[in-house]
Amino acid sequence: MVEPVEPKTLFQWPKAGRVDRIIPKERLYSEGSVTTAVRQRFIDQIQRVRWAYKLGEESVRLKGTANVSEIQVFEIELKNATLDDTVLATIDKSIPSPIVFELRRDDGSWVEQAMSAADVQSSAGKPKAKAYFRSGWIRDADERAALPQALDIEGLYAQLLGAFLPHPLRRGEKLSDGIARMEGIRKLEREIGRLEKKVRLEPQFNRKVELRRDLRALQAELDTTTTPDDTTTEDATWRS
After folding, report:
1. 175-201 and 205-226 helices, crossing angle to 10°
2. CB neighbours (10 Å) of residue 232?
3. What average pLDDT does the chain have?
């Protein structure tokens, strides 16, 4: 099986889009109906949320589309090293445009940052976050990359999200197809895990042989699905 890469990318946001505004945590989870468990995660996992940048026509010189008119960049200071995706999903639901999250953790002697964003699809005119993807942790002092080229704001968000995929996009593969492949990979990995457990627990030899044959078939399918090629995109300005 091809091991997933851990994408490590921080982007240089345009100064013209700087907002630099603290958003109270309570505002983010009080505007929607959240469970007590999710509310507690906000309290336990987040120190501070800052609306850092707004990427729109004035700041990145790209036009919006009917689906994505702006992109927001939120900086989240963590209390510890973890942040549950349900917290990000709650924030996404409270903001009408897609968000790129910069996660920041600081233990007093070092600072690291990671980036996260969701596959956002329109549902009844409202953006709906699906699977979340994250970069690996990166030293705060590391050099940031320039924003990727795009034709519009929607295309820019697609390329930013594409930078966080655990398996690189294949030649000519659109972002939507790449994300669908990631979902298929996750499903295969879950099925393999369940089958491996069955193999360990199965007492009958003949049945164990059958299960191992099925397991090899799934592992071969996973290898085929995760095998990368030597280029990642068909065009630098593709959209989702």
Report:
1. 160
2. 16
3. 85
Calculate the dihedral angle through the C-alpha atoms of 123, 125, 126, 130, rounding to the nearest 10 degrees.
30
**Global pTM?**
0.78
CA distance 84 to 203: 38
User: For residue 200, what are its two tokens?
Assistant: 């360990």
Share of the chain above pLDDT 90, in %: 51
Distance CA 30, CA 27 (A): 5
Within its chain, how far is the Cα of 175 from the centroid? 12
User: Residues 6 or more apart from 79 whose CB is under 8 A from it?
Assistant: 44, 45, 46, 47
- What is the residue extent of each domain of the chain? 15-162, 175-226
User: What are 46's strand-pairing partners?
Assistant: 78
Q: Which of 172, 156, 55, 162 is nearest to 119 (CA)?
A: 162
Q: Cα separations (Å) of 110 from 3, 97, 104, 114?
A: 28, 32, 11, 14
